[in-house]
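Q: Could you fold this chain for me?
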Amino acid sequence: DFVTTLESATDPYEMEWTPDRYKGFGLASRQYTFLMRARRSGVVHDGGLQLAKPGALIVECWACPRPGINLPKDWEQVAEKYQYRFRRTVSIDADFRMSNKLKVEAHPDPPLYDGLGVQVIVLIEHAARDR
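A: Sure. Below is the predicted structure, expressed as structure tokens.
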């Protein structure tokens, strides 16, 4: 992986002890991702993160059907056997690997932001509105 490659590039012959930078790199990567998400959402221009409302950092799914954006004009008049094409599908994870995250960890991983991104409760409420 990337961190191991950086460690071997630092000391290719492994003559000296190289400190483990995996956890630090992971934290820096999470912080960078959070800052990019905050910048791209435009929250920083609306009073900052302190005044951001829950769900402010959510990027709408490009694949989810939305009238007027990515659905044809006559999508409601399509034959019943083809209506499945315009139905929203919500799953626990896009690549079905969320089960790996459900295991108990030795230490909790606190979020960098609470409620500004996608939370399971927000998804359930969103799915209930669409019915």
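A (continued): Residues 44 and 76 are 38 Å apart (CA to CA).
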